[in-house]
Specification:
This protein is an alpha/beta fold. 48% of the residues lie in helices and 15% in strands. Bound molecules: NADP nicotinamide-adenine-dinucleotide phosphate.
């Protein structure tokens, strides 16, 4: 029980990787706060964790709106007195070749993935700075390191998260707050289930470990980065990609 009664806020955690991360923390004794844009799905996921005998709560929030994120953080701080760990996981894709990419597609992806991460760091870091303690982990992507055809918006948003992570790591280090990112490769979730078979085979050929990752693969590294064992690690981006971006 390495996170007993710690308050862990995971954005975009009603499903997919976020849900797996929240569950993994709850299995280690944390109170997992399920946050997502849809209130019903947040509540449903939190209840499913509680039904498994785990500790969970929910807080619906659209990460693109700073006022809504502030309100959520304040409610949690009133209720629990602190947020020990923040996992910025909410993210979307809107793929298109650059010449065809519409301004709305660019804006939507940058706003959810990058501005959403900014908003959550802004709302939660104030209390961490006061407490002189905290762990912030953001889910980037290997696409933010490698780039990808048809994903200029997504690659830019995830590269932005990596830069934000390095800057906040420097700014918050003196207050004992570590800030790190995880760059998953291709992980089996609803997001990647949309891939066509031909694209899936091509991707598999580029992965030395010859399989897609699982949400558990990402959750394990998230737990490590939030643990005492990682107290001396900050500003890093850990690739969880089966060797794709060696
Ligand atoms: P997912 O299954 O699509 O889950 C993303 C969650 O974020 C959904 O529950 C979604 O809610 C929520 N969300 C979307 N917009 C939001 C907003 N404005 N505010 C709050 N929540 C919002 O995605 P995933 O595959 O688990 O990915 C999770 C993270 O890992 C993302 O940041 C993604 O970029 C990153 N990642 C994924 C992979 C992969 O292979 N799957 C690889 C690298 C990185 P709705 O469903 O209601 O829209």
């Amino acid at each position: 029980m390495q996170f007993k009664d710690e308050i862990v806020l995971v954005t975009g955690s009603a499903r997919g990787i976020g849900r797996e991360i929240a569950t993994a923390f709850a299995k280690e004794g944390a109170i997992a706060i399920i946050s997502d844009i849809n209130a019903e799905s947040c509540q449903k996921t939190a209840q499913e964790l509680i039904d498994q005998g785990l500790k969970a709560d929910f807080a619906a929030c659209d990460v693109t709106k700073l006022s809504a994120v502030d309100e959520m953080a304040n409610k949690l701080l009133d209720k629990y007195g602190r947020i020990d760990i923040l996992v910025n996981n909410a993210g979307i894709t809107k793929d298109n070749l650059f010449l065809r990419m519409r301004e709305e597609e660019w804006d939507a992806v940058i706003t959810v993935n990058l501005k959403g991460t900014f908003n959550c760091c802004k709302a939660v870091s104030k209390s961490m700075l006061k407490a002189r303690k905290g762990k912030i982990i953001s889910i980037a992507s290997v696409i933010g390191i490698l780039g990808n055809i048809g994903q200029a918006n997504y690659a830019a948003s995830k590269a932005g998260i990596i830069g934000l992570t390095k800057s906040l790591a420097r700014e918050f280090a003196s207050r004992n707050i570590t800030v790190n990112a995880i760059a998953p490769g291709y992980i089996k979730t609803d997001m990647t289930d949309q891939l066509k078979e031909e694209a899936r085979q091509k991707i598999l050929q580029a992965i030395p470990l010859q399989r897609m990752g699982l949400p558990e693969d990402v959750a394990g590294v998230c737990l490590f980065l939030a643990s005492k064992q990682a107290d001396y690690i900050t500003g890093q981006t850990i690739k969880v990609d089966g060797g794709m971006a060696i």
